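Lab notebook, bench 4. Still working through the backlog of constructs that have no structural model yet. Next entry is a single chain of 361 residues. Request: give me the structure tokens for it.
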Amino acid sequence: MRWTAAIWAKGLMSAAALACVLFFATAAQAAVTQPPQPKSGPGGSDYPHAGMRVSSGGSGSDAWYVFQPKGPRPERAPLAIVMHGYYEFAGYDSMEAFIEHTVRQGSVVIYPRWQTGIAEPCPGPYYIEPCLDSAVNGIHGAMGYLSSKPNAVRPERRRTSYFGFSFGGIITANLANRYRDLGLPKPRAIFLDDPHDGGLNGPGEPALDDTLGGIPKSVKLECHSGAEGVISEPGKEGSSCNAVFSLLGGIPDRNKDLVMTRTDDHGEPALSSAHGVCAGGDPAATPFGAPNAYDWNFCWKVWDALRSCAYSGTDCGYALSDTRRHRSMGRWSDGRRVKPLTIQDDPPLRPPSMNRSGTTP
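Model written out:
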């Protein structure tokens, strides 16, 4: 009887030990988390400003938002012009996190609300000009507001950068190309996130200007396409940044890069390279979800560094050329590297799932 009890007790202990090992092994696996936001440097959380002041004005598709740093409020600040994508005309939820980071780092942000409804004011790529006009009106309206208010932060036109997401990336490229004729500030840095006109009027982004030679050669430019974004869709291999870069031959390689993120599901939550890598905010208000490691270790890092490189010649290695600092996306909590950025000087970018012919096997 004693032996039976002893064996039974030993069995319980072994089962408990095995359960404990399995529990901790499972917990360790489940506990792999994304890299935290860096405490300093490009993309970092060492914000010199505590928050942002939000103002709005204009009407219809000429409406705009202005975001100014506060806590403390600077007298002057660099200007950033941020463009939303198609169908994203209800407020600024889709780009809220990106905007807040930019403002708290010390810039004034102008966000033209160049659209009021589906196909309004422009029917997508079929006739983009009304949306371009609205974006220009919104920018001028917002700048007029900033110059007319005695306690507003004065935007520094000579330090102006442009960001465009999706269809807003196509608008941004065209505005930067025509900036002189449109009376817009000269682009010093440009970041395009998966620019796309919808493909409704044919492949290859036909809504782009036929040439982008009007963009200054001195600009610092990065164009990003996700491996699961536009270029992964059948028939769109030559779209997005592959189309944009084909028109940027006048800008030297040292001033521009073509980059691709790849989905990484090693930890939780997974890091997606689907359309909208740089978009996001309050998960309850936007389908793009909360910001994650691809925001601070890629989008925000590159955006900060592009502007620093353009304005003061610093941090260039975080945003241009195939450097470790540019490629790196940080490490998962178990030490494994997040899949690094793919960086090229020339198109095409090809998602890993595609073969050399540009088709999916």
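Notes after review: The CA atoms of residues 85 and 167 lie 5 Å apart. The radius of gyration is 23 Å. Flag for follow-up if needed.
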